[in-house]
Structures are given as C-alpha cells and as structure tokens.
Amino acid sequence: MNAAMNTGDLEFEEPFPYHPHVTLAQEIPQPEVLAIHELARRRWEEYRGSCVFRAERTVFVQNTQDNGWLDLAEYSLGAVAVR
C-alpha cells in the first residue's frame, strides 16, 4: 500500500525503509518508559478479550515542526479475502 500511494503529491523519499505500524504512545519522558512498559506488559497479560480488531480506514500523517500532525490522506479499506 505504501508503494502504491507514494506517488504524485504524496511522493517522498523516506530516510529509512517503510514498515507499517500502529503508534500506541509517544513523548513518554525517558525516566517513565520502563514503568509504563511494565504496566502495559502486565495489563496485556491480564487481558482476556479478543485480540482481533477490524481496520476500516487508514490516515497517513506527517509530523510538523511544532510537533503537531498534518493529515495527508485518508483511505477507506475494502474487504480482502483471507485464505
């Protein structure tokens, strides 16, 4: 998807290889990282609900100089057959 969309007005030569991801947290003060990681690990271990979610849309964003986010493009995700 990244290669198909990295054209025209959205084209950009990335400084690093693209890898899809979901950002769960950011801007955690360094002294708090280990404690927050441990809390997240414990809560995930205790969680008994479904580990599956449905992604219906994606938004491609750009971080700005004032550390805000600029939406570049939003796409609805269609159904894909799973084998």
Task: Name some characteristics of this structure.
two-stranded antiparallel ribbon, 83 residues, flat, alpha+beta, 2 helices
Topology readout:
Blueprint: H1 2-5, H2 33-46, E1 57-63, E2 69-76
Antiparallel strand pairs: 1-2
Characterise this structure.
Helices cover 22% and strands 18% of the residues. The chain has 83 residues and is α+β, with helices and mostly antiparallel strands. Strands 1-2 form a two-stranded antiparallel ribbon. The longest helix has 14 residues, at 33-46.
Strand order of the largest sheet: 1-2
Helix content: 10-25%
Any low-confidence stretches, pLDDT <50, length ≥5?
Answer: none
Spatial gap, N to C terminus:
19 Å
- Written as H for each helix and E for each strand, in order along the chain, the element string is HHEE
Number of helices: 2
Number of strands: 2
Beta-strand residue percentage: 15-25%
**Average residue pLDDT:** 87
**Sheet having the most strands:** 2 strands, antiparallel
Give the helix/strand class: alpha+beta
Give the overall shape, derived from the CA principal axes.
flat
Using the CA coordinates, give the radius of gyration.
17 Å
